[in-house]
Design brief:
9 helices, single chain, Tetracycline Repressor, domain 2, about 75% helix
């Protein structure tokens, strides 16, 4: 009995630490979308969540470590909110539309206070070489890869013509989503989301096999 109790007590601090780290990173993700990842420091985050700097240092030893952990947390949130539901849809154009709708819903639900986490920090880190930028670039490439795979599946299913430049189509889809993110953050006008839907519909209609 004593050993079981001791084990339970040992697990509780560990569980509390995991919960605390999760709460810290959730706050860090939100703060990064409004202040930028470069503006995210241990001191500022500690003040924002009402925690001591020494308490934060127990979780993150440096600003870069905090930034990388914040990006990883944002990836987990985005995957659960957008990618995983979209991957359950039928391969091909249905999945392309599911990815788009997932992204637009992500914005509309205001999962982060300033739109897409990755669109926000990508603009800031583009000219700042380093591990955080490398991770963001990998995320953007992975996101583009989701569209590329879905379009390849659409080609194999005969949903789009064999001569369609899929790389160009992915570029145009991504560009449209980056723009809608900016306009949504600035205006919060639902009409912006509808414009994006119409734009995607036109792009995909033009790519469909005739007849």
């Amino acid at each position: 009995m004593k050993s079981a109790t001791a084990a339970s007590l040992a697990r509780k601090p560990r569980a509390d630490g995991v919960a605390s780290r999760h709460a810290i990173l959730d706050a860090a993700c939100r703060l990064a979308t409004t202040h930028g990842l470069e503006g995210l420091s241990i001191g500022e985050l500690a003040e924002h969540i009402g925690m001591s700097k020494s308490g934060l240092y127990a979780h993150f030893k440096s600003k870069e470590e905090l930034q990388l952990a914040t990006i990883d947390a944002a990836i987990s949130i985005f995957n659960a909110d957008v990618l995983e539901p979209a991957r359950k849809s039928r391969p091909g154009l249905a999945r392309v539309n599911a990815l788009v709708e997932g992204f637009l819903g992500h914005l509309a639900r205001r999962v982060f206070p300033a739109g897409c986490f990755f669109a926000t920090v990508a603009a800031q880190l583009a000219a700042r070489p380093g591990r955080p930028r490398d991770k963001i670039v990998a995320v953007q490439q992975s996101w583009a890869g989701e569209f590329a795979r879905a379009l390849e599946q659409a080609r194999e299913a005969g949903e789009i013509g064999p001569g369609v430049d899929r790389a160009q189509l992915v570029f145009e889809l991504m560009a449209m989503l980056f723009l809608v993110n900016f306009e949504w953050v600035v205006t919060e006008d639902p009409g912006v989301l509808e414009k994006a839907r119409l734009g995607v519909k036109r792009l995909l209609s033009a790519a469909k096999r005739p007849g």
